[in-house]
Amino acid sequence: MMGRLKRDQRQLFYCFNLEEVVPQDHQVRRIAEVxxxxxxxAELAPHYSPIGRPSIDPVLMIRxxxxxxxxxxxxxxxxxxxxxxxxxxxxxxxLGIEDKVPDHSVFSRARNExxxxxxxxxxxxxxxVGARPALIRSGGTLPIVPALTDSGxxxxxxxxxxxxxxxxxxxxxxxxxxxxxGIAAARELLRAFAAx
Length: 196
Fold this sequence. Notes:
The chain is mainly α and 196 residues long.
């Protein structure tokens, strides 16, 4: 006899434990083992007013951003959506199954206003890895350029995308067959510089 899913009545109560549904070998568990953010609230306290509406928890923001970086989630809108539906991401961020994920616009504004003038991500890196990062992002989509120019090394940035590629945007479209063409163009550019 063919079974059918019963949809007679919605269940009133659920017993659900996120800890049990996140696989032991999931990457978020390995990150969580070395990721201690207990110091963040004290570090960022001077950037918050003691009165007013509560903000998004900075630890939640950092954890969500780490999820975005590690799993290549390219926009804050997509990041908020993924944390909303992915149980492993919820577990890593410390959100329960019914906890509300910040709206992407509030998340973006809070990140830009609170963290723009603070080295919090460098501090996170140093505390987790135990060393200073070689390069620190300083705006734009190519952090290597300011790092080189600040060190007195001239830098040239070239692009090999087509006008509709929308490079470095949430709807980026770079075709795989264009990659060898970009490499060949870069090779020719370097040859031309060598001939100078």
